[in-house]
Specification:
Blueprint (H helix, E strand, L loop, with lengths): L2 H25 L1 H15 L6 H10 L28 H5 L12
Helix pairs in contact: 1-2, 2-3
Length: 104
């Protein structure tokens, strides 16, 4: 096997791995948060080098604070935001209804 072919296989493998991680983070956020927390706990020990402890702090998932501004979406109270009005003047004025008689 030539060096170029090995480099190509390694590059394609890395692209597939990164794509898999992105899909997992999107479709299974709790699972990946547990995995990242477990990896961070293993790396953040007093007997490991400083660079591993720094990596552990970067891997640690963001903790939710329990308020509506952190976007945790666990209670469903935040809900979707109402759509913005197209024009400020039309939002304040009600639109009149017009009724027409039925055709016979």
């Amino acid at each position: 096997m030539s060096t170029g072919l090995v480099l190509q296989y390694v590059t394609v493998g890395l692209i597939v791995l990164v794509s898999l991680l992105v899909v997992l983070r999107k479709l299974a956020p709790r699972l990946t948060a547990r995995w990242l927390a477990a990896a961070a706990l293993r790396l953040d020990r007093p007997d490991v080098p400083v660079w591993k402890r720094a990596l552990a702090r970067m891997l640690q998932p963001k903790q939710t604070t329990g308020n509506c501004s952190d976007g945790c979406d666990t209670c469903g109270a935040c809900g979707p935001k109402p759509p913005a009005a197209a024009h400020p003047s039309t939002a304040a004025e009600p639109m009149p209804l017009g009724f027409r008689p039925r055709r016979k």
